[in-house]
Design brief:
Keywords: Hydrolase, Magnesium, Metal-binding. It contains seven helices and 16 strands. It is of the alpha+beta class. Helix 1 runs antiparallel to helix 2 and helix 5 runs parallel beside helix 6.
Length: 280
């Protein structure tokens, strides 16, 4: 199926509601005593808290209740296949768990609907000073990127401004490195420890660009559509260089056209560069 403009608008409103309610779940547990488990072998790199699990369970249940023919992929392991609808919710219930568990208010909830591999709806909740409900940045395909009644736009210009912030932490040895000019004039590097938050702030023009070295699908799915609808672009990197990242299908130029499944979304990882198309 291909979603109509009306269907996209209705689903976007549902995604905003999901983001608001998930934000409340997270804030009810923020800066309170919590146990932290670790999913990695080292036992300190990849934390998970009760908040991650409760938020993901809520999103899995709500998307299933309202959209029983849609699939679901969550970072913490929840999932179901989409079947013939080809529509998958891809969520990170708490992006920035290390910040969250240490009492730093730099985290978010990232919610995206992916149609046959392409992000078409996105909503990101972020806590924000002096706002009870935090910020919700949202977009749908063809509808622009918004925060409330304010339409968002990526940072302007074809070159980074030295005094403005960027995320440039993803240069991987042997794959791609910054040029001397970029190191000298590439902007002030600032990472908030939450990939999805950083992409939302590319969409609103705070960050000039971001480069993330190896994010998962749930880290970037919502951010890709937010940046695109704010006038930006996202690129990924393969053996033939950079290419437009418009789908999670494993199809850089010359690649295959495999159907999207829980497994393929769960295993997707690739560099992502996002910003004004004249700049990146």
């Amino acid at each position: 199926m291909t979603l109509s403009a009306q269907e996209l608008q209705e689903i976007e409103q549902q995604a905003i509601g999901f983001a608001k309610k998930t934000g409340r779940i997270l804030m009810d547990r923020f800066q309170r005593p919590m146990s932290v488990d670790y999913k990695d072998k080292e036992g300190w790199k990849d934390p998970v808290t009760e908040a991650d699990k409760v938020a993901e369970a809520f999103l899995s249940e709500e998307t299933s209740r309202l959209f029983p023919d849609h699939g679901f992929v969550g970072e913490e392991g929840s999932g179901r296949e989409a079947g013939s609808s080809r529509l998958m919710w891809v969520v990170d219930p708490l992006d920035g768990t290390t910040n969250f568990s240490n009492g730093l208010p730099s985290f978010c909830c990232s919610i995206a609907l992916v149609e046959d591999g392409e992000p078409v709806v996105g909503a990101i909740y972020m806590p924000w000073p002096e706002t009870k409900e935090g910020r919700i940045i949202h977009a749908r395909k063809g509808g622009g990127a918004w925060e409330g009644e304010v339409r968002l736009q990526v940072a302007s210009g074809n070159k980074p401004i030295s005094g403005r912030v960027v995320v440039r932490g993803g240069f991987l040895p042997g794959r791609f490195r910054p040029s001397k000019d970029l190191l000298a004039n590439g902007g002030q590097q600032r990472s908030v420890g939450s990939t999805a938050s950083e992409l939302a702030m590319v969409a609103d023009g705070t960050y000039q660009y971001t480069l993330h070295g190896n994010p998962h699908s749930w880290d970037v799915a919502a951010g890709i559509i937010l940046v695109k609808e704010a006038g930006g672009t996202s690129l990924s990197h393969g053996k033939n260089g950079w290419y437009p990242l418009t789908t999670f299908k494993n199809n850089p130029p010359g690649g295959t056209q495999e159907p999207i499944t829980q497994e393929s979304l769960r295993h997707w990882q690739s560099p992502v560069l996002s910003g004004n198309p004249e700049m990146v």
